[in-house]
Specification:
The strands form two sheets. A four-stranded antiparallel sheet has the order 3-4-5-6. Strands 1-2 form a two-stranded parallel ribbon. It is built from twelve helices and six strands. Strand 1, helix 8 and strand 2 form a beta-alpha-beta unit. By secondary structure, it is α+β, with helices and mostly antiparallel strands. Helix 4 packs antiparallel against helix 5 and helix 11 packs antiparallel against helix 12. The protein has two domains: 76 residues, no CATH class; 209 residues, no CATH class. The termini are far apart.
């Protein structure tokens, strides 16, 4: 056992410290080891019969995992935001640290294969959407959760796939991920109070932006197709000032930021300040990373 391992082991053995201030110092020293501290902490939890020690270990592991996921979300934003599914997975892991990402990817790939079998190069844009809608809403039975739009189960990729119910944003993310894996040019549109999708003329132009919007898709209404006129009507009904962003594709970073804000709203309604603090910490880190890039 090397010096670091010896030091970590010694700190873990001190977790029964009765003095709270001393315990906080021990806790902070364990945090320095980061994720390498998790396996020995888990072993210590299994070997302990002290409820206080087990509770303290659970809290330390949770904090280490949350810090790790927060940094991964920021790294995704800075280096790999083209993979929307990865962003969705990372945010979901904040609440479900044991989430099996490989199992999620396998499920997505199965849906992709189901759609691929019905697609061909001769289909029009509307026919492509008809196939996607059939796979998601008829074959796999996904639907909007109209009873409880902000239910926690709507917000995470694993629970979305388990319950087959989601809100406009999470159903939209699933739709985008599936479409883009099939080389179908579907992107998110950050319309206030209702997330929608845009079907564009190209998957990506050379400069990295989507092509011209051909029509829009409502993932919350089983993939119903509509035009810009419906968005204009919605904006007037909501008494909003029209903005270009209401009609054009947004970035994957915008989508994940909206997802985190939705989660904050959910936990505000549920009265869960701990979850709110965790999510706000991610927003702060993402904003700092964005500001440093400018």
């Amino acid at each position: 056992m090397n010096d670091d391992a010896n030091q970590l082991s010694a700190l873990i053995h001190l977790l029964d410290e009765p003095d709270d201030k001393t315990f906080q110092l021990i806790r902070e020293q364990i945090f320095v080891f980061g994720e390498q501290a998790v396996p020995p902490l888990e072993q210590a939890w299994e070997n302990s019969f002290d409820q206080l020690v087990q509770s303290r270990i659970e809290g330390i592991i949770h904090k280490i995992q949350q810090d790790g996921f927060r940094h991964q979300v920021v790294d995704w934003m800075k280096f790999g935001s083209s993979d929307l599914l990865k962003g969705f997975l990372l945010v979901s892991m904040i609440h479900y640290p044991e989430l099996n990402a490989e199992e999620i990817v396998v499920k997505i790939e199965q849906m992709k294969m189901d759609a691929w079998l019905e697609l061909n190069d001769n289909l029009t844009a509307l026919e492509n959407v008809k196939v996607l809608n059939h796979i998601l809403f008829d074959m796999h039975k996904f639907e909007g959760n109209r009873i409880n739009l902000y239910a926690p189960t709507n917000q995470y990729i694993n629970t979305l796939l388990e319950t087959r119910k989601g809100n406009p944003l999470t159903l939209g993310i699933l739709y985008i991920v599936l479409a883009q894996r099939l080389k179908i040019p579907v992107f998110g549109v950050n319309l206030p109070q209702h997330f929608i999708l845009a079907y564009t003329s190209e998957l990506r132009q050379p400069q990295g932006t989507p092509g011209e919007v051909l029509f829009y898709v409502n993932p919350f209404n089983k993939g119903a197709v509509f035009t810009r006129r419906e968005i204009d009507l919605f904006i007037r009904q909501m008494q909003l000032k029209p903005e270009p962003s209401f009609f054009t594709p947004c970035s994957n970073i915008d989508i994940i930021l909206r997802l985190i804000n939705n989660m904050i709203l959910t936990y505000t309604q549920l009265g869960n300040p701990e979850r709110i603090d965790e999510l706000n910490a991610i927003l702060v880190m993402m904003k700092e990373a964005f500001d440093n890039e400018e």
